[in-house]
């Protein structure tokens, strides 16, 4: 009886192997292209000149948004920009994004360098959001819905809302 069980078990394994082999020959799996947004974000992060900036972003990545927050239990966009500029570049920024916008020497999008500030107006004409430029059209910010995240500046929502960008005035 045990020999019969072994034979049946071995036959099942062989049948399963043959079925998998035949299925793999008959179809090709689609390969993931390296141009996905996640790979582009990873590429932007890997090309940061400042390793200290890289560590800062990865350390804060995913921290939830909290209006007025300044720590890992929650942070808002201007608080994130304030801490990043202070810790990485030694710059002292005002607390509110609209006040921070007054502290930059304006640049066009094509002139931005790693660490430059980008300001947005989602609710009208006044600056109400800030992010930090990385490279390759990517920036990091504290999103109200997704927390601290690296995002694609070329998305229409950001293109429509961008009002100013530049570097910290020395």
Calculate the mean pLDDT score and round it. 84
Which band does the percent of strand residues land in?
Answer: 15-25%
How many helices? The count is 6
The low-confidence parts are 1-9, 13-34
Shape, principal axes of CA atoms: globular
Largest sheet, if any?
A: 6 strands, antiparallel
What is the number of beta strands?
8
Give a quick precis of the structure.
The protein is of the alpha+beta class. Helices cover 40% and strands 22% of the residues. Mean pLDDT is 84; it is low at 1-9 and 13-34.
Question: What does this entry look like structurally?
Answer:
It is a single chain. This protein is an alpha+beta fold. It is 40% helix and 22% strand. It contains six helices and eight strands; from the N terminus they run αααββααβββββαβ. Strands 3-8-4-5-6-7 form a six-stranded antiparallel beta sheet. It has a two-stranded antiparallel ribbon with strand order 1-2. The longest helix has 25 residues, at 2-26. The radius of gyration is 25 Å and the shape is globular. Residues 1-9 and 13-34 have low confidence and may be disordered.
Key phrases:
170 residues; 6-stranded antiparallel sheet; two-stranded antiparallel ribbon; globular; disordered N terminus
């Amino acid at each position: 009886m045990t020999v019969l069980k072994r034979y049946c078990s071995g036959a099942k394994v062989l049948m399963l192997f043959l079925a998998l082999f035949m299925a793999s020959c008959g179809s090709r799996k689609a390969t993931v292209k390296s141009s996905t947004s996640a790979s582009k974000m990873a590429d932007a992060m890997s090309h940061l000149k400042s390793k200290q900036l890289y560590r800062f972003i990865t350390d804060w990545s995913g921290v939830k948004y909290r209006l007025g927050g300044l720590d890992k239990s929650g942070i808002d966009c201007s608080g994130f920009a304030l801490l990043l500029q202070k810790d990485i570049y030694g710059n002292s920024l005002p607390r509110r994004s609209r006040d921070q916008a007054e502290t930059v020497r304006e640049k066009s999008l094509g002139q931005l360098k790693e660490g430059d500030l980008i300001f947005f107006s989602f609710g009208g004409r006044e600056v109400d959001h800030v992010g930090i430029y990385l490279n390759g059209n990517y920036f990091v910010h504290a999103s109200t819905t997704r927390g601290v995240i690296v995002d694609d500046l070329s998305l229409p929502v950001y293109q429509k809302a961008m009002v100013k960008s530049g570097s910290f005035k020395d």
